[in-house]
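Appendix B, Record 12. Input sequence as logged:
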Amino acid sequence: MRSFVLGAGAVACLLIFGDTPARACGGCFHPPTQNPTVVTDHRMILSVSLDQTTLYDQIEYSGSPDSFAWVLPIAGTATVGLSADVVFDALQTLTQTTIYAPATNCPPPPSNCAFGGAAADAGAAFEDAGVTVLKQEVVGPYETVQLASSDPQALDNWLTGHGYTVPPDIEPIIQAYVSEGMDFLAMKLVPGASVQSMRPVRVTTAGASPVLPLRMVAAGTGTSVGVTLWIIGEGRYEPANFPFFRIQDSELVWDWQSQSSNYTTLRQQKEQASGGTAWEIESSLPLDVGALTNVVDNGGYSYPYYGYDAGIDYLPTTAPDGGAGESASQVRDDDLAALFEGMTPSNVRVTRIRSDLSRAALAQDLTLQASADQSPLTNLRYVTAATGSPVCPSYGFCNGQNGDDNGSMVGGGCAIAPEGDASGTLFAFFGIVGMALSGLARRRKR
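Logged structural output:
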């Protein structure tokens, strides 16, 4: 199960677990009578403009929750909406780091050996026991309430009295956020909603706030937690209060025997040397807003076909009075509008950073800043050094074996495929762009 949550402050996820793998959002808590569930990885998107800030958070954990609830510190009143997995999947495919092996220097195939395969180079505020309820509404399968209080104990009492279990070690963190003037968004499933109803959620607050809420992410984690973060804005970003590094192509070595590089090992070594506090700057790329929009419109890379109804990746909503709300397509349009709100499309960049943070590193939130160097950073890495020797093809099939009547191998190739899982999907992305430009794919005006 996947779920995403956005917000301008820290995220806390309160839930009850079962036995099978699942995904949800925020820092995860469990009642003392349940077996502990450890959060192992987050995927987040932080969209920052002068107008507003929107944060998506996906948490990977084990367990099959019977009920979900979240608490997110926010700055002011937030706008809550529904999102979909396809947005995350599109960014993952577009920015996936791809490692290319060195040239094999193998002899070329005979001139009669042609290859058929291509190389893949609501409501008014009211007071409730010391807590001001700013807004209440139902968004898809979620009940949401936005709260303000200057008394941490009153806020804790309100949450506990309304079915939110707050672990003792998180209470000081909530107190700290209250002292900083933060308000809170609390969400949980509508009574009777099944686990299958869990959907990504979008939370947006006014103004620019390039801060990743790590303090409450600590809830439910073990000794370390992995975080992949995409920052979408008009420029390249980097951590301001955490160390960071970039793995250079010159550091990479290809192992011909294992058909892999030392990229992951290098990252782990650099993270460990920092005591689990450093972030890797993976890439910073110009983002074609129209192309990404078309990918989401067409249901992602799995369904790049004209006429595909991408609305099925989203859920329709109902109005506060229970009447008709927005269609799935309208929800999708709102989601994409929020992702790029306040940005000039030609200036949009996506910066991808990654870290495996120690629990001690989660004692402070991550503050981001504009990089002094605004040049792009590619996600394609080319290795020149290697150990061992490549195995060269014999081209025995060129005499008509395993080929067609002309001696050409069908669906074959001799090029070394890039390391990682993005080699095919990156080309799928550009294929969809080509479809959009040629008019074969549907393109909507926004």
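Helices lie at 85-95, 152-161, 171-179, 263-273, 289-297, 328-339, 423-438.
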